[in-house]
Amino acid sequence: MNISPPDRRGPAGDGGMPTDPYDRPGQTFPKLPPAMVERISRYGEPASFDGGDYLFEVGDRGVDFFLILDGAVDILESDGRDGHVLIITHEPGEFTGELNHLTGRAVLVCARAARPTRVIRVTRDAFRRMVSAEPDIGEIILRAFILRRVGLIQHAEGGTVVLGSGHSASALRIQSFLTRNGYPHRVIDIDHDASAQQAIESFHLGPGALPVVILSGEQVLEHPTNRALADALGITEELDPDHVYDVAVVGAGPAGLAAAVYAASEGLDTIVIEAVGPGGQAGSSSRIENYLGFPTGISGQALAGRAQVQAQKFGARLVVAKAATSLDCSDFPYRVSLDGTETIAARTIVVATGARYRRLDVPDLARFEGQGVHYAATSLEGRLCVDSEVVVVGGGNSAGQAAIFLSGKASHVHILVRGEGLTDTMSDYLVRRIVESSAITLHPRCEITALIGEECLEAVRWRERGGAETERQVSNLFQMIGAEPNSDWLSGCVALDDKGFVKTGYVHDDRVGVAQHATSIPGVFAVGDVRADSVKRVASSVGEGSVVVHAIHGWLASLAAAR
Predict the structure, then answer these.
(1) Average pLDDT of 345-356?
(2) Residue 208: per-residue pLDDT
(3) Which of 99, 117, 540, 557 is the Cys-Cys partner for 113 at CB 3.0 to 4.6 Å?
(4) Closest C-alpha to 275, from 298, 292, 251
(5) d(CA 327, CA 325)
(6) Regarding beta strands 389-393 and 476-479, do their DSSP bridges make them parallel or antiparallel, or are they unpaired?
(7) For residues 501 and 37, what is the distance between their CA atoms, to the nearest angstrom?
(8) What's the mean pLDDT in 349-366?
(9) Residue 17 has pLDDT above 80, yes or no
(10) pLDDT at position 9, please?
(11) What single-letter DSSP state applies at residue 49?
């Protein structure tokens, strides 16, 4: 059976210019001039391959960087039938690699010598030194790596297929996990895709097997957890329990990623722990338009993806699909326990686990989560809303961004708030767009009274304060109300306020000084939405993540002075 991806013709962007990275070969597959080739050769060693030899294969970790001198190298992806399809052929002056070569994760493609070939082989450690020491070369390579990953995602390349119903909560969770981690995949929706039944029969799948993830047309994972999927795809990091990091950042939202970028760039041995994937609550925003430096806006996920590449460029490690379950601050170095049996030891801890949206107090809510009830409004959820009415509950910026994004897909968007309006809780530019939009209706002084449906959400009922109830045929409802801190894992260790947010501002040592982000435990800091009295904005979270590194240096200096 053929479950290979569609052709590589990309959509047109603004002004008719192609947005497909494969239509930008000068940036995606650049040919380096002789002077740069000579400089790169100082960081590596010459190597030769016969025609047909593999430089690396799908699933290999820690793959080296190869610069072609003579010959040619084919880059191949799985065709879904235990074979390969050609993506590109690298000629002399070109180089192999995409983002997984930077991170050390399992690679998504194969590289095979098309004929006798000579290369410069640069190890990963030497590659990091080169990118840092040769910024003009590093800029070209990293841009190419990013564009190549975008191309793999855009064309569903890499051989990973999600087979399931578009109305399945498990299928949506799997897609969200892959998307949050920037992992290329193709979706076969059994409700709409004609090839779905063929896939089910080819892999002998029973009625209760779906959703499944098919890897390279061979391995089938039924109902995989995020952890099992990460292990199978090689996304997970291999941890050394005896290694002690300078900084362990828990949470990969804007605050955590900012802390990782600044800590790693200043030479601190840094690791980031993330339960799902980069982005945090900001990852649920389809477009952030008031973030400095992005006048046309940027999605929360795109912002997080760029920050992740920055952090890993400076040497930070990112552990995903492993949630922090507890912090042991009774001994030093501190230890963070992960779900399972693993622990991570560090001299300093940065708590950046953020907050989650509160859940509505309405019957049957849990039954519809992932099957009509959502906590993010990205392109993934947006596809489920085409030509139907949707409800957004909440009056903050995230709710406003969601409503505006969904108004371009849904037939109509209803915003429900308990207050008198939006002006006290939402940025003015969002309020004005909502008021001016004919596709959005604001319903003040309202609350949800019932969710209606069999397997999936079919209707929503709400009541205006002191008025009659209204029921609408609605297949998707988006909850974006308030915030509850993700701080359960800190219980019994770090002081929390009565709402569970982390209390900060403690002074432990005159040599360190007053640290705005210092918790009740010396060497443990909190940044972003999880911190009590923080400003719930992306920019402020990024600022806190960057500023806290100064306090970390002070704490580490006090440790060194005390020895």
Answers:
(1) 96
(2) 87
(3) 117
(4) 251
(5) 7
(6) parallel
(7) 52
(8) 94
(9) no
(10) 35
(11) E
pLDDT for residue 79: 65
Asked if residue 101 lies in contact with residue 121, where contact means CB atoms within 8 angstroms, the answer is: no
Count Cβ atoms within 10 A of the Cβ of residue 464 and give its class: 0-12 exposed, 13-18 middle, 19 or more buried: middle
- Residue 297, judged by CB atoms within 10 A of its CB (0-12, 13-18, 19+), counts as middle
Beta bridge partners of 446: 464
Alpha-carbon distance of 451 to 459, in angstroms, equals 6
Please count the other Cβ atoms lying within 10 Å of the Cβ belonging to residue 139. 11
Q: Residues 6 or more apart from 376 whose CB is under 8 A from it? A: 176, 283, 284, 478
Q: CA 72, CA 180: separation in Å to the nearest integer?
A: 34
Q: Do 325 and 337 form a contact (C-beta atoms < 8 A)?
A: yes
Do the beta carbons of residue 408 and residue 378 sit within 8 Å?
A: no
Q: What is the pLDDT of residues 494-547, one digit of tens each?
A: 999 999 999 999 988 665 555 789 999 999 999 999 999 999 889 999 999 999
Transcribe 216-240 into DSSP letters.
Answer: TTTEEEES--HHHHHHHHT-SPPP-
Instruction: Please report the pLDDT score of residue 158 as a whole number.
Output: 78
Dihedral (Cα; 247, 251, 252, 255), 10-degree rounding:
-80
Coil, strand, or helix at residue 440?
strand
Q: Does pTM top 0.70 for this prediction?
A: yes
Taking residues 69-78, what's their average pLDDT?
Answer: 94
More confident residue, 504 or 216: 504
User: What are 88's two structure tokens?
Assistant: 């590109």
Residue 218 has pLDDT above 90, yes or no: no
Name the one residue in this structure whose structure tokens are 């460029």.
313
CA gap 346, 348 in Å, rounded? 5
Are 539 and 303 within 8 A, CB to CB? no
Q: Are strands 244-250 and 481-485 parallel, antiparallel or unpaired?
A: unpaired
Cβ-proximal residues to 324 (8 Å cutoff; 6+ apart), any chain = 250, 273, 275, 336, 337, 338, 353, 489
